[in-house]
Fold:
Amino acid sequence: MLSVEAALREILDRSAPLPAESIPLSVSALGRVLAEEVSADLDMPPLDRSVMDGYAVRRADCQEVGVSLLVVEEITAGRIPTKPIGAGQASRIMTGAPIPEGADAVVVVEKTRADGTDRVEILDTPKPEQHILRRGKEMRVGDILLSPGCVLRPQEIGILATAGKTNVRLIQLPRVAILATGDELIEASETPGPGQIRNSNAPMLEAQALRSGGLPRRLGIGRDDMDSLLSLIEEGLETSHVLILSGGVSAGTRDLVPQALAAAGVTAHFHKIRFKPGKPLLFGTADRAGERRLVFGLPGNPISSFVCFEVFLRPALRRLAGHADLDLPEVSATLAREANFQNDRPTYHPARLRKSPTGWDVEPIEWVGSSDLRAFLKADALLRLPPGEVRYPAGHRVDVLRLDG
Ligand code: AMP
Ligand code: MG
Structure:
């Protein structure tokens, strides 16, 4: 059986960034990956400007504290000065307003005294260029501002607007189809009859896919028969870059997903890995419309499905969306109490992180098995455990993967 690392390699070797698309710049670009170089179309600032509210002065006039100057005009942001500053003169100036000709410093308003006349007393001996930002100091026409591969945060979106980029080329978001399978499943709006349970995996996977940068779409519930599965699998392969199935990949007599995927032309690259929770994980690929589709069969137990997604699908979706940083964020934490485990496989155990005065404390959560979504509500991290007997005393340092970071 494949190790976690080998399984991830199988997946990522077949996951390449999607092509680019052009979209109007809006907040929906947040978190997406740029697919073009962006350069400055103007100098910033476009003119020499004041960075403070105060008076534009000639330093030569202000060698002594208390000198009185004639105020010739008031320059507000967005206005162009009309009067040069001559000897013994100053202009009232606001933050962002252009520096008038002749001025070589700005004195902040707090270091002046105005008496309601057209004169101002300067209580400062300004340094050269004080509070003046010269044209082009931030950027010059043609400067490269952003490079392909850059992830757009709010500040990148601000810079795109500064550079007048109203349309941007971004790596496409992967379309993700989600298919829950099982004869026992009903939708959340229904009341379960005997033997039935509500489909919690599909909405949970949909939320995980969205959080990982995908565009999720639910295909409804597939029943444990070949016809039902085949038509929904085909719909998923036709419409999406990634098809996720939950349930039906284990060793039960109605676990038909591997067979149905093979019948739909999906090549399985692995089925079953050395990993807990989620040993039956299946990964395959298929070709549709000249493009590669990634297919994941997740075990139906909600925690297995959740953890398999975070460990194996999240990196794949992020790679498709053009991200270079694929891994869950990792923190070093201190075990808050002793922890004893006995696992036959490498295990990712749900855990709870808490801020401590020295960093992070972590506590494995207690659960009654991998269907226990209620206990999993407490989890915000995964504790990686080696196979075999593990006895960690309280205070032991461990590296933990953050789920909500
Ligand atoms: P399976 O992997 O199909 O053998 O399912 C394993 C367990 O997960 C069974 O107890 C299923 O009832 C449960 N299960 C499967 N699919 C879902 C789902 N979409 N939502 C909640 N539980 C599920
Ligand atoms: Mg099933």
User: Anything to note?
Assistant: The pocket of magnesium ion (ligand 2) is lined by residues 182, 247-248, 300 (CB under 6 Å). Residues 49-133 form a domain with the Molybdopterin biosynthesis moeA protein; domain 3 fold (CATH 2.170.190.11).
